[in-house]
Amino acid sequence: MESSYFSVEQSQRGAITKLILANDATQMNWVIDPEYLASLHYHDEDKLFGEFHITVNGQQFQSINVTPKIQQFNTQSQLIFPFENFKVIENFILNGKALDWQIQVENLSSSELEVEDFGAWISLAYVMFRDKHVRRNANRSAAVFPSISPEYTKLAVVRRDNTVPNLGVYQTEGRVLSVGTYNEYTNRFFENASPSLDGMLFHEFILAGGYQDDQRPPS
């Protein structure tokens, strides 16, 4: 997909693998790149931007285990993930200076379904690169700062060298309970004392659940 403001590439599964701002001279990729994951032998394809996990009526499902039906156009795409009694629909729409992301769960049965847990990955490029190119680590990586509320969760996505342009993610509909983070890293202290770690942070929107029953914070 492409507009005057964004260039977007998606995998064969529909996950967003490249998000580039047209006016960015560095042409930074603002999402985690599966090719970079593969080069490090990290197996996190289930956490690419747009993948999700969901628990319905006590049964756990992951999008990575389902082949979606995909429709792609110049400025929008739709992913439909079919499950036995329900489907999950994701729409990505380039709209002016925004990329709109819509997620729906549709009940295909005549019975009530309970969504007990639902997390959708929004894996932005919070990457500590393995190489020693300091400029790349500062300019091609973004720190992610969540501000969480049920009706208006926001993410400030700021390039680590504090140059522009940067990104903002804004909830405009529905409910977001929290923002989760998963870390994948390698300790390289004995190769290089500082910096000694390389890796990345994967972020996700918690749309339902988020805690095991015995781990919920007191209300």
Notes on the structure:
5% of the residues lie in helices and 45% in strands. The chain is built from two helices and 15 strands. Strands 3, 4, 9, 10, 14 and 15 form a six-stranded antiparallel sheet that branches. A hairpin with a 7-residue loop joins strand 12 and strand 13. The model has no long low-confidence stretch (mean pLDDT 90).
Question: What are the secondary-structure elements, in order, as H or E?
Answer: EEHEEEEEEEEHEEEEE
Using the CA coordinates, give the radius of gyration: 18 Å
Question: What is the residue-mean pLDDT, rounded to a whole number?
Answer: 90
Name the structural class. Answer: mainly beta
Distance between the termini: 43 Å
Largest sheet: 6 strands, antiparallel
Please give a quick description of this structure.
The chain is mostly beta strands. It is 5% helix and 45% strand.
